[in-house]
């Protein structure tokens, strides 16, 4: 099973950005540990550029995609349309509980076109998404 993890803007700053919300671990360190513990083939892509995220999603040849669109979650119609149009199932994840944060973060444009949403469990949100794909193999 091949799963692609796609992280959007500012997630390259994990480990240093607002550690009280996002923790102290970089995503690269987390991803390397996750790859060693997982029984699936994991690939990772991060970009701060909306078009690069869309290109990555459209080109994905995976069994599943885990998408943390960051701030684009609440603003990008283009990213939403991309997720709606691709054949690979997408699980939306967020490290923080977006419904406990600022009101503008309460609305996700991605959620209605994702197969599911996981948020508020820190970096474990990614592991929960992987588990979803493992138990729902095509």
Could you give a short description of this structure?
Helices cover 33% and strands 19% of the residues. With 138 residues, it is α/β, with parallel strands linked by helices.
Characteristics of this structure?
alpha/beta
Query: What's the total number of strands?
Result: 5
Assigned CATH class: Alpha Beta
Our count of helices gives: 5
Relative strand content: 15-25%
Give the count of structural domains: 1
The helix/strand class is alpha/beta
Major sheet attributes: 5 strands, parallel
Corresponding CATH superfamily: Dehydroquinase, class II
Please, what is the average pLDDT? 92
CA(first)-CA(last) distance: 10 Å
The side-by-side strand order for the widest beta sheet comes to 2-1-3-4-5
In the CATH hierarchy, the architecture is 3-Layer(aba) Sandwich
Radius of gyration equals 14 Å
Order of helices and strands: EHHEHEHEEH
**Unreliable spans:** none
What coarse outline follows from CA principal-axis ratios? globular
In percent, how helical is the residue content?
25-40%
Structure write-up:
With 138 residues, this protein is of the alpha/beta class. The protein has one domain: Rossmann fold (3-Layer(aba) Sandwich), CATH 3.40.50.9100. The protein is built from five helices and five strands. The chain has a five-stranded parallel β-sheet with strand order 2-1-3-4-5, with helices on both faces. Helix 4 links the parallel strand 3 and strand 4. Helix 3 packs parallel to helix 4. The longest helix has 12 residues. The N and C termini lie close together (10 Å).
